[in-house]
Inverse folding.
């Protein structure tokens, strides 16, 4: 069941109309717009680079969230998922993982290219990629709660972002500070990085629990 | 036996009419006590001496600290109501956390605004992005998000259950706010009133602060009960309107 659901969601998100690639495109567009806003000063760009890449990733992770349960609700498969005997928490966790593989992982893979645009050095690019790899699952898990809460709303996309962003701030703080710690010498890399790992693991438990609870309550 | 009595009393309140009767009896008293306490508190706040370092600006504390304390207590009340909604399906709990959200947002805004006014002369800046200020700002955003979510749904009971989930998830922020001044080095000072080794704040400032804190807490409960009463009335009016519209449709 687990693998079947995983592959089904992955196929749906990658194939036409899935919108997985739109997230990456949005990510690149957001980051590409920044130099026009702050000016093409390469030193400045390399200094704010990790932060810009992280904010771009955060925004594009939010962009795809409303599709997490919305499409399933539209075609009725959400009701089937709710009715089956497997624990709903597990189902939500699998759906989150599939969503991350389809929407989050491409962001991580695209981030080195954007790092080059931002004139970041190799260490900064590597650190940003690593923190994104650890941090974006947390964004998906937090977002699952927001997506489940807003699933019954006709146009919930913007509301999901508003509800999820405040909770996602710690991820951003520690992700960015770990990326900076890798570049700037006196600051240690491990403490913020380990806190980021802890946040991801914490929300990997809380997110699916909350989302399952919200789905049960929103859908009757 | 006493516990079962408390439970019966609480489930009695599930009947909105009983709650309305109780609210009508309690509200005038609470309002009066709140007004008296505010009168005493405000008198004390202005009668006591200023701080030898901070001068007159220390009086901002008598509004700032109670408002900040209430911004967190309001969220805790909402979290308790959210548990009441999800676990016991208590109808009054739905109304309670819905009515508390705008109050919480207002108190948080007061805390942020007075803190900012206090920070300008003391720290030399309106705003710093330190842990305490940022986490309270996040709390403010969460209140606004909850209000937006409640307004976006037409079915009140579904809106209540769904926002209850979100309230409980957002509760992780409350310990972060409370301990942010201990966990990180911040510009904001650590707790000085409620401490294991007794308050470190001078008695001169402690008394007005305590009176104001009690006055603010009572103010919150008065407004909360009034807001719950209004919400129940609003739902009744909406139900009556729907009935009237249906009856009008039948006649035509």
């Amino acid at each position: 069941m687990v693998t079947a659901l995983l592959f089904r969601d992955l196929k749906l998100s990658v194939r036409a109309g899935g919108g997985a690639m739109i997230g990456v495109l949005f990510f690149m567009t957001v980051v590409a717009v920044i130099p026009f806003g702050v000016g093409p000063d390469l030193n400045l760009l390399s200094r704010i680079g990790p932060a810009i890449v992280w904010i771009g990733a955060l925004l594009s992770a939010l962009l795809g969230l409303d599709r997490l349960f919305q499409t399933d609700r539209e075609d009725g498969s959400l009701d089937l998922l709710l009715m089956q005997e497997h624990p709903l928490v597990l189902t939500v966790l699998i759906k989150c993982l599939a969503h991350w593989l389809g929407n989050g992982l491409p962001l991580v893979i695209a981030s080195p290219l954007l790092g080059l645009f931002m004139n970041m050095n190799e260490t900064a690019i590597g650190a940003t990629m690593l923190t994104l790899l650890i941090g974006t699952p947390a964004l998906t898990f937090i977002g699952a709660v927001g997506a489940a809460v807003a699933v019954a709303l006709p146009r919930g996309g913007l509301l999901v972002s508003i509800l999820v962003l405040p909770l996602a701030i710690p991820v951003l703080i520690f992700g960015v500070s770990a990326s900076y710690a890798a570049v700037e010498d006196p600051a240690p890399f491990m403490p913020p990085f380990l806190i980021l790992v802890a946040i991801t693991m914490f929300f990997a438990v809380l997110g699916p629990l909350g989302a399952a609870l919200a789905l049960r309550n929103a859908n009757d | 036996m006493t516990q079962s009595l408390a439970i019966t009393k609480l489930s009695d309140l599930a009947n909105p009419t009983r709650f309305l009767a109780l609210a009508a009896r309690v509200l005038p008293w609470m309002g009066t006590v709140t007004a008296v306490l505010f009168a005493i508190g405000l008198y004390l706040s202005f009668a006591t001496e200023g701080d030898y370092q901070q001068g007159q600006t220390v009086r901002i504390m008598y509004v700032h600290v109670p408002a900040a304390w209430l911004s967190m207590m309001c969220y805790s009340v909402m979290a308790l109501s959210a548990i009441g909604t999800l676990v016991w399906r208590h109808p009054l709990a739905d109304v309670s956390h819905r009515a508390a959200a705008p109050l919480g947002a207002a108190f948080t805004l007061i805390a942020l605004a007075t803190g900012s006014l206090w920070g300008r002369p003391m720290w030399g800046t309106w705003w710093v992005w330190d842990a305490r200020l940022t986490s309270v700002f996040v709390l403010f955003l969460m209140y606004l998000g909850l209000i937006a979510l409640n307004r976006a749904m037409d079915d009140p009971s579904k809106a209540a259950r769904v926002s209850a989930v979100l309230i409980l998830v957002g509760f992780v922020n409350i310990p972060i706010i409370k301990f942010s001044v201990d966990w990180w080095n911040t510009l904001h000072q650590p707790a000085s009133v409620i401490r294991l080794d007794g308050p470190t704040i001078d008695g001169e400032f402690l008394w007005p602060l305590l009176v104001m804190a009690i006055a603010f807490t009572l103010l919150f409960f008065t407004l909360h009960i009034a807001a719950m009463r209004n919400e129940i009335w609003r739902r009744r009016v909406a139900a009556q309107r729907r009935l009237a519209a249906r009856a009008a449709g039948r006649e035509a």
The mean pLDDT of chain A is 85. The interface with chain B takes residues 145-146, 148-150, 152-153, 156, 159, 162-163, 165-167, 169-170, 206, 210, 213-214, 217-218 of chain A (CB under 8 Å). The longest helix of chain A spans residues 88-117. Chain A has nine helices and no strands.
